[in-house]
Amino acid sequence: MSSIEARRRVPRFIASLTVLLSEGEARYVVQTENMSQTGVCLRSEKVFPVGTQLHLFFGRPPELPPLIAEGIVKWSEGGKRLGVEFTSISPDDRLALLRFLSSPSRWKQA
Description:
By secondary structure, the chain is mostly beta strands.
């Protein structure tokens, strides 16, 4: 078991969604690799140090309304992947995310 897998507290689900990240005035478009109700793993060529505060805007795939969340980088594989823990997400957006993740026909557990 990898150290990343050992740190997981909730199930992750494979998901490939487009996310617009902002760090201050800078904007980046990245893809999700997997996600959960508490965070997301992103594929990114940009290196974000652990502790970086990010604003995330999830696009609009079927069955998921646009979502906005704040998060903090918890781990980083420099220029490949990073794990972001949600620090702020509205109750409505959290409910929409939970519904999206709980759709059994759409997801395989990561």
